[in-house]
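Checklist before submission:
- one chain only
- standard amino acids only
- sequence pasted in full

Submission:
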Amino acid sequence: MYRVESESEDGAAPGFGAGGRGDLPPEAPLDMPVQDLSRVPVSPADAVGYVGPLVQRRLFLIIGSFLFGLLAAQEMFTPLQSDGIDGIDAAFFLLFFGLFAWIAFGFLNAVAGLFVLLGRGPVPVVARSRPDLPRGRTAVLMPIYNEDVAAVSRRLAAMTGSIDRAGAADRFDFFILSDSHERAHTAEYLAFRRLREDSGAAVYYRRRPRNIARKPGNIAEWVRRFGGAYDYMLVLDADSLMTGGAMIRLATAIEARPTIGLLQTVPQLINGQTMFARWHQFASAVYGPVASAGLRWWSGTEATFWGHNAIVRVRAFAESCGLPELSEGSLLGGHIMSHDMVEAALLRRRGWAVHMVAMPEGSYEEFPPTMIDHSVRDRRWCQGNLQHLRLLGTAGLHWVSRLQLFMGASAYLTSPLWLLLLGAAIFEQLRADFDGFVLISSGWLLGLTFLMLIGPKIAALIALRMDRDLVRQLGGWPSIARGTLLEIVTSVITAPVIMLTQTMAIVDILRGRQSGWLPQRREAEGLDFAEVTRFYRWHIALGAAMMTAIALGIDGTIWTLPVAIGLLLTPATVWLTARADVGEWLVRRGWFVSPADHRRFEEGPGEAPELVLEPSFAIARGR
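Returned file contents:
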């Protein structure tokens, strides 16, 4: 019988003694100082070589979004001028301008991505080759928190087996970094021992007795204890999966470019069973290539970090990314929750390049199975991203890093602002002092709004014509057309639900209610309808109030009809999309088919998909 031990309070690793393999390797401490965000760090001159017209690209997006927002807001503002202008009208103008500019940014990003892909031409068959093995050592880190032990073990077994078949088991060590409760420790430890016995690569396990600062604290503790023995760390989530070839490609790529501090892949979604998860798998496969191509096109060396499926230079991370705890006495204080974007900004602050890379396959993750599970995770991300507003004044940040931090917060702030805009539009209609007042005076503004919203999907479908293999994996064009239509309808119905959910989350955060740290549910067969109704009772109430106002003929309320319908349908929508049998039924009939429905985790010895660094992101010189 195995002797189950937890790590002692002083940090000593449990094990078998001098003669056996311990649960942890010998410690190799690495200093990771906490960063002073109020002072520009003393660092060497910026070693990132500038290649490519990044300034022009960014100006295209920023100025273009500004002009689209100004054009739309001016048209919306025209009828307001008929009875004079006051402060309320000016506030309405600014609100509409900001929100329209936000959707215009997404549209222009997709347009840029489309032209990048059109310039690349037809997508060739995925190239596989035997990459050179990296000289340096890489630690593959999987932080876990009360996860399904069997599922985590399956993913780790697949990855260790893949790296072993690729002939790189001596270059990659795997660490299971547990923050789980004490009651989960025994199951985790026994699973680890079984995994280690069957693995050709080194596998280690550590459970923190005090899970301080959540995942960033977990990673930082590993860096300070073991980081000195490794050149790179490949950070995963508990639902991440990567092939051995993909891991090798990332390690050799970062090794060949000494000024790069982080390479972020764009993971593909897999293993979805419910309608909700399959919907997002399909949408990610169809729309993702254009969106990510646009993001890579303008982000350059100031790309972001998503906290998983990315490789990081350990010493760069240690010198740059020691996160301070924000003052508890103020709003949005405490440990930094959405750490990843902040760490990318801090790496760039020290002169390290941060890139997003294209990898046609080999990097995967899973998506929450239901809207309720997604909202729980989204609530935590909301609080973390709002913390970014406090970090915008950090000394020494690149302006693009500040922009990305602001955009991360804005992704949640737009929800209450859209709700406020609906209310403001009704108020403007009610206070008009003459008959015949119409807030939207021209049809072309509605057409422009529709173009901004549907344009990224059209761009994605145009680009998809060049990737015959992806079209085949999506079931062919008839299946893609059906899936796109259903995706649009589902998105329209669920948009009001997400808007109100995020608004309520922000209100809770402003009231001082913390998100907590709950384990994520990775799989679901369905939800109880009564549970769903209770969870979304405020959505139903607001939808009923809107519908009542429409029935009473209150001026301006007719524009809220799509929102009211979406809110009233919330219980049925959430219940239906949470069902695995519905997801399976749709895929069998050619709806929401995705590459994940055809893909198996297989890879020949030494084979790996090509990794693409955009030519304009080339590094001019090393450190």
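Reviewer check: DSSP finds 19 helices and twelve strands in the chain.
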